Amino acid sequence: MYKFDPFAIPFLIGFAFVIGWVIVRMIQIFIGMPKKDKKRVFVNIFTFKTVRGIGEIISEVLIHHRIWRENKLLGFMHMSFALGWFLLIVTGWIESSLRANGETLPIWQHIFYKYFFPGEHVFRLSDVIKQLMDLWLAVILLGQLIAVLKRFFYRRAGIKIRTRHSRMNRIALTALWFIFPLRLLAESCTASLYGGGGFLTGSLGQLIAWIGDASFITYPMWWAYSIALGVFFCVLPFSRYLHIPVEAFLILARRWRVSDITTINRLETMACSACGMCLSDCPLARNNIAGVQPVYFIERLRDGKATTDDAWKCLQCGRCQQICPVRVHANNLRQELKGSTDRVEFGLDTHKRVLAKRVTLFSGCMGKLTPRTKAAMEKILNAAGVEQTWIDEERDLCCGRPLRFNGNQNTANQKFNELHDAILETRPDAIVTTCPICFNMMKNRFETIPVYHHTDYIRMLIEAKRIDLERSEETLTYHDPCELSRQAEYARQPLKVLNRVGTMLQPEETGEKTRCCGGAVAAIGLNNSERKTLAQETADYLSNRNADKIVTACPLCKKTIAQRSKRPVADFAEIVADALVERE
Amino acid sequence: MKELNDAVIIGGGIAGLQCANILARRGRKVVVVERADTIGGHVAQWHTCYPFGLTGKELVDKLTTHLELAEIITNAEVDNIERERDKYAVTVNGKRHDTRTVLIATGYNLFDAHIKEELGYGVYPRVITSVELENAWNNNTMPFDTSDTDAPRFAIVHCVGSRDLKCNVTHCSKVCCMAGIKAAKELKQHYPTCQVTNYYMDLRMFDTSYEELYHNAQTEFNVQFVRGRISEISLGNKGRLKLKSEDTLLGIPIVDRVHGVVLMIGMQPPATIKVDNEDLAKNQNGFLLQSDPINANLTEHPGIFIAGACKGPKTITETLADAKAVALAIDEYVTK
Ligand SMILES: Cc1cc2nc3c(=O)[nH]c(=O)nc-3n(C[C@H](O)[C@H](O)[C@H](O)COP(=O)(O)OP(=O)(O)OC[C@H]3O[C@@H](n4cnc5c(N)ncnc54)[C@H](O)[C@@H]3O)c2cc1C
Ligand code: SF4
Ligand code: SF4
Ligand code: SF4
Q1: pLDDT (tens digit, 9 = 90+) per residue, A409-445?
Q2: Chain segment A124-175, per-residue pLDDT in tens
Q3: Which of A405, A429, A463 is the last residue of a domain?
Q4: Is A559 in Cβ contact with B234 (below 8 Å)?
Q5: Which of A5, A44, A302, B33 stands 20 to 30 A from B1 (CA)?
């Protein structure tokens, strides 16, 4: 039953090319990995981690669950393409294999089954399968219809800012958009001549047969379909569709605990799908300040054309990372460009939590600019009977993080070590800092001693009934600092405490969706007026709730917002200190 | 037919008063609208003004010789001007004033020192602003309690809320260098045993008499000048304040312990005025924009003029000259 037809050649070339390209690239990446990580791959590959990885591949690469969560319509669109196409291939393969009845077929006879086996064939399940095949095709075409309409009515689709795609991406997109309508036409024309086909291709085939004789276009249609496939595959490695194969590898690498930052960075660079979701809530995009959002930045990075703006204008506020369905850590990519790494973990310190009798506190360079916060902390800790040492009261110490943000790794490490040793000398039971930027740098880096952000520590004191608070009539708007809500993933709890002392008036974008205050230390490439614009926007956004006070938990946020807002700004600690009830 | 004024002047500071006084003397029909309950603007609060050494009150009085000929409305704020072909209408307390021209002389707002929290304003009572210092002299009170020492030390911090990228402010407020030297001398006069240090970025002694006042402060009053920005003020022992800075001439970090700090707060743009509900054009620092390179008082709206510190920081001398120029411009416009 072996048959060949030259129209399959474009497809075969493209297919061989893309498979070869991906294999070569993945092998290159594997070779480039440090020994430790290679070992991890071998240790983990035959464990449950791989199973979970495959689960995640299904939910993200095929179903696009994270996109669904942000935007239902876009979720359906991406799923219809990915899952639809996947099912079409799998079902098609089953169909052709059943038809071949035990014989092995070459790949093109599976792919172009309807061409090589035209007409009605009866075998086990053939009726169900042919309808299924048409169903999947219909689903894809519906997705495509949405994709086309989305171009014109993007606001209706919930897209705030449209992505401008590169030439390569547009070529790939055009090829992709041709594939399925051509397939529909090719199969329907064949059905018009030989019969067969399901509710879609079969019916369309009958319609074509009723109109006239389609024999002269049927063969060219199959050629066109194959060419569309071939072109798509050939440009795939140079377009955003590279994410389709690479995202799967990225998911597995993460599951296998590959920790080498260069490896992950390379994979993430290729795994970005240019979906553009990172554009919608970026303050730089909203204010037309710079087009350095991951969707553009990563494209330039792939082409080796990243700009200084890409490195120095981004606030590294992490809003885009948080929304990204592929979990591309654009901040790590930018750090790489800056020549330093800033790999701080997500979440809080993982040591055993203790209330501690003796704490050592660290204001940090920014915290020193907000003495009211320190005074409030002193009041709270005194009330709770906690013995306190402020480590940088006399000495100037630095956690080193701002230096990292600015590409100065060595000095940063040196600074951190100085701080580390100075703190250890005080022999504390716990370490508390009032700055979320320092907090992320310090957490999990003090052997056995837990590190807290002051919002967390104060909450512990309240829960342990070491301090009592009194409610006031005040209305408050809490601004989540990016470093606390997104990097430390500590977002709901401060609100709970504040809810006990005042009435909260939260803006829409709050918690891990918080807006950047505009003060970010990473963005040294922004000029003064750009900074002003950003700070003003956020200050207005928060002031618009008309609360008596704006509350935040980061000295940098506090300073930045206070300069521009119509409402007074206070630190979380100040609010708690004001609400303290004296005990006899 | 409603009566038509020649000019409505928004802002009764020295700029507005100078212009009103001149126009009234020339028989023009003028209305002055002032937000506060008294006229004179900021200058009325200053104890003594350089370079002539007059008190603010004396200075303001010199500008009111013909003002009984003008209508003065206090406690009234204007935020919008309506345009009607070749005239304007300004509504004050529900009453409409039609006018040929409008002068905007809304001056400046003072920088809120709370924003520079690191300088301890609002945290430590011994940190005060230049305005509070003027007020203390006006009320014959001593700004700092020095009962705990025989040799008090004071620091005067320049450029607070000016030339500070950390506050997104790029402009120089122009008057505070001189006002800072004035403050240093006054402290010396009131606390003869004290030592005063001025912390500056650079000293902008641009007028003929200023350089002399600066030398005089050093030679006669022994005021110290340190080139360096204060990075942080905290509570030291014995209730003193601890200032951290760097002497950028010597290149060494320094710590100073003092009994009182005066912050020379800068000038910020005034609140927005709208014409037909649209903001008047502003320059990059938020002050009102002069639309013509030759005529310093024109805006993009013919008949709407600007003068004084609402265009950017100005000394009293400059403000008065500018106000005189605008009086001429308005007079010509109305004659036309
Ligand atoms: C601490 C300090 C010390 C100084 N000392 C000196 C000195 O010694 N020598 C010197 O030459 N200069 C000095 N200056 C500068 C001096 O204060 C200014 O040059 C002067 O005040 C400018 O006058 P003006 O009329 O333009 O503005 P302002 O004095 O600000 O007057 C503006 C007036 O307009 C009113 N107004 C504003 N908006 C509205 C509105 N929408 N509706 C109605 N009314 C409104 C205000 O209430 C105010 O009365 C000093 C400044 C400071 C900050
Ligand atoms: S970085 Fe993430 S959100 Fe942005 S385009 Fe790439 S995949 Fe989409
Ligand atoms: S980190 Fe923030 S500023 Fe930078 S691209 Fe992402 S959203 Fe925009
Ligand atoms: S006048 Fe002097 S003190 Fe004032 S802002 Fe300018 S340089 Fe600073």
Answers
A1: 999 999 999 999 999 999 999 999 999 999 999 999 9
A2: 888 999 999 999 999 999 999 999 898 888 888 888 888 888 899 999 999 9
A3: A463
A4: no
A5: B33
By C-alpha distance, the chain A residue nearest B283 is: A529
The verdict on A158 and A67 lying in the same domain is yes
Residue B309 in 3-state DSSP? helix
Any A CB within 8 A of B277 CB: no
Whether residue A493 is contained in a domain is answered as yes
* Domain match, A509 and A453 both: no
Q: Which residues of A touch B167 (CB under 8 A)?
A: 563
Q: Are residues A130 and A13 in the same domain?
A: yes
Q: What is the SS3 assignment for B97-126?
A: EEEEEEEECCCCEECCHHHCHHHCCCCCCC
Say yes or no: A116 and A206 in one domain. Answer: yes
- Using CA atoms, how far residue A241 sits from A244, A327, A358, in Å, is 6, 16, 55
Cα nearest neighbour of A519 on chain B: B166
**pTM score:** 0.85
ipTM higher than the 0.85 cut: no
Residue A370 sits at the chain B interface (C-beta within 8 Å):
yes
Using the structure block, give the residue that is written with the tokens 């709206």: B301
**pLDDT tens by residue, A318-367:** 999 999 999 999 999 999 999 888 888 999 999 999 888 899 999 999 99
Inter-chain contact A562–B120, Cβ cutoff 8 Å?
A: no
Nearest to A371 among B117, B166, B167 (CB): B117
Residues near A84 by beta carbon (within 8 Å), at least 6 away in sequence: A136, A137, A139, A140, A143
**Same domain (yes/no): A80, A201:** yes
Nearest residue (CA) to ligand 1, atom 48: B41
Residues A444 and A557 in one domain: no
Q: How far is B168 from chain A (nearest CA, A)?
A: 6
**Domain co-membership, A176 together with A71:** yes
**Residue A368 belongs to a domain:** yes
Q: Is position A321 within any domain?
A: no
Show the 3-state SS of A196-250: CCCCCHHHHHHHHHHHCCCHHHHHHHHHHHHHHHHHHHHHHHHCHHHHHHHHHHH
What pLDDT score was predicted for residue B33?
A: 97
A532 close contact with B: CB closer than 8 A: yes
* Helix (H), strand (E) at residue A459: helix A454-463
d(CA B21, CA B36) in angstroms, rounded, equals 19
* Ligand 1 nearest-atom number relative to CA B11: 34
Q: Which of A413, A440, A463 is the last residue of a domain?
A: A463
Number of structural domains, chain A? 3
**In this complex, do A372 and B117 lie within 8 Å of one another by their Cβ atoms?**
yes
A178 and A230 assigned to the same domain: yes
Which of A371, A528, A535 comes nearest B165 by C-beta? A528
- The boundaries of the domain holding residue A552 are 475-578
Q: What are the pLDDT digits (tens) for A9-62?
A: 999 999 999 999 999 999 999 999 999 999 999 999 999 999 999 999 999 999
A375 interface with B at CB cutoff 8 Å: yes
The CATH number of the domain holding residue A218 is 1.20.950
Structural domains of chain B ordered from first start: 4-108+269-335 (3.50.50.60), 110-267 (3.50.50.60)
How does pLDDT run across A87-125, given as a tens digit for each residue?
999 999 999 999 888 888 999 999 999 999 998 888 888
Are B17 and B40 in contact by the 8 Å Cβ rule? The answer is yes
Q: What is the DSSP letter of B282?
A: B
